[in-house]
Design a protein that fits this description.
It is built from 5 helices and 5 strands. It is α+β, with helices and mostly antiparallel strands and 209 residues long. The chain has one domain. The strands form 2 sheets. A 3-stranded antiparallel β-sheet has the order 3-4-5.
């Protein structure tokens, strides 16, 4: 009788191990997939918030003031929104503005791979903003328009997020023709932050827009 009880207990433990072996891959795949999508979504929100904050520097005329300092090789704050930020010199206003966006996403994405576009559509808010993705406009900085009072501006930053969980993109894309997760190449998702606005009348002699 005692031996039968021991055999039954050992059999139960063996069954539990076999069941766990079947369930574990699905469980860990689900957990890692949730983690992947969660981090990527957080990075998307961080990029959008950073673009909005950086755009405010143009809209209020702060970028215009800092551009004059950069032109004279005077060190400026690396991150304008942080009063305690270290100072640095920049080759041009474009590099400085890109850094302002990178300040909000450091640790999440490589600044070298962030592509920034600053443009002033000639047709104002009624323009086809998608046309600014055409060749010669992506990854550019229109300093003349950005530093002009009352200009209508578009600020966009993009980043290709590499899906690190093996096969997750293909699994989620298999039944989704709109390609929810992977929409750039085999293992990348394009993250994008965009803001449009009219510059304030920050220049002297401009009473309103």
């Amino acid at each position: 009788m005692h031996c039968s009880v021991l055999r039954a207990a050992g059999s139960d433990r063996g069954n539990a191990a076999i069941e766990f072996a079947f369930v574990a891959p699905v469980f860990f795949a689900l957990m890692l997939g949730i983690l992947e999508v969660g981090v990527m979504t957080f990075a998307q929100f961080a990029l959008q918030n950073s673009v909005t904050d950086a755009g405010r520097l143009i809209r209020t005329g702060q970028a215009q003031q800092i551009s004059a300092l950069i032109g004279e090789d005077i060190p400026v704050q690396k991150c304008a929104k942080e009063a305690s930020s270290d100072q640095a010199t920049f080759a041009n206003e474009q590099d400085w503005f890109k850094q302002q966006i990178c300040c909000g996403v450091e640790g999440l994405m490589s600044c070298d791979n962030v592509v920034v576009t600053v443009a002033s559509p000639s047709g104002g808010f009624g323009s086809d903003f998608n046309a600014l993705l055409a060749s010669g406009t992506a990854g550019t900085f229109d300093s003349a328009s950005s530093n002009a009072a009352c200009s209508i501006m578009l600020v966009r930053a993009t980043y290709i997020w590499t899906i690190w969980f093996p096969g997750l993109g293909r699994i989620l894309n298999s039944n989704l023709p709109e390609k929810f997760l992977v929409n750039v190449g085999d293992d990348g998702r394009l993250l994008s932050g965009t803001t449009t606005f009219r510059n304030e009348p920050f220049s002297s002699g401009v009473s309103g827009c």
